Amino acid sequence: MKFRPILLGLSLAALGSLVAVAQDSTPTVPQVLQITREYIKAGKNGMAHDKTEGAYVAALTRAKWPTHYIALNSLSGKSRALYLTSYPSFDAWEKDTASQAKNAPLSAELDHANFADGELLDEVDQAVCTFDQELSYHPKADLSQARFMEVSVYHVRPGHDREFHDVVKMVIDGYQKAGTAAHWALFEMNYGRPGGDYLVLSSKHSLSEIDTGFAEGKKFAEAMGEEGMKKLDEHVAASIETSDHELFSVNPRQSYVDESWAKADPDFWKAKSAAPKAEAAAAKPAATATPKPASR
Fold it and tell me: How far apart are CA 116 and CA 191, in angstroms?
């Protein structure tokens, strides 16, 4: 398969702190990233989904919950939404879950929200990833200005992880020599996906950064040289079985972010919410509510 290094390093603003970690609003690269993926029924996205997701945001806001998340809506591929929550450790995730379970009013509101949201969905799954500092390049720690996200998944052939590491290091070396603005954060997908999956996330304030990235691809190729590109292609063919590249937009109405983000850019992060009124969320939940992770 032909590898496209430009998509790995193309103007990649690193994931950084997807959200402020629990009880600390200081941006930091998350060590543990929990991702909930919702596939939405035809005709049920847009304002309808904003409304049901707004119930989660409203409940967490009322509870002043310290763990936040960012919502991404697909601009390519199937209609779906991703919800990204970061933690400094698995222990922190466990404590967050336990604290929520002890908060009966919040748990009840989230159960009601689960039921309403579940009516719009075809499927829900979750994955858990851990940050790889060695394979990341100039990761940034602030996503408050992110408006779009490239999401790339590389599936490595069994037994070829070392070669994949070599591929990424070659790409890093090429961008260092080229002197471009490339930067990214890479995560190993530990749970919820087949073994050998690696996640690369890139944030962008504007889609013009994609244009810039493609233009800078020529600098990368020149820095690598003909022999270097040939060697890179050989390592890619030997190590990467498949890759998938998708584009998402950040949806502020479905995101629960730190108040400092909202104050810094209220026009974006405080976009008018379609959340139902508090009393509407008090309706009796059904037993078939869609399961969600602790902070969702």
Answer: 27
Supply 38's token pair: 């919702």
Could you report the per-residue pLDDT of 200-224, keeping only the tens digit for each? 998 899 999 989 888 889 999 999 9
* Topology of the domain covering 5-264: Alpha-Beta Plaits (3.30.70)
Give residue limits of the domains in the chain: 5-264
Nearby residues of 21 by Cβ (< 8 Å), 6 or more positions away: 28, 30, 67, 86, 87, 88, 92
Map tokens 């530990």 to a residue.
Answer: 190
Q: How far apart are CA 14 and CA 200, in angstroms?
A: 9
SS3 for the chain is: CCCCHHHHHCCCECCCCCCCCCCCCCCCCCCEEEEEEEEECCCCCCHHHHHHHHHHHHHHHHHCCCCCEEEEEECCCCCEEEEEEEECCHHHHHHHHHHHHHCHHHHHHHHHHHHHHHCCEEEEEEEEEEEEEEEEECCCCCCCCCCEEEEEEEEECCCCHHHHHHHHHHHHHHHHHHCCCCCEEEEEEEECCCCCEEEEEEEECCCHHHHHHHHHHHHHHHHHHHHHHHHHHHHHHHHEEEEEEEEEEECHHHCECCHHHHHHCHHHHCCCCCCCCCCHHHCCCCCCCCCCCCCC
pTM: 0.84
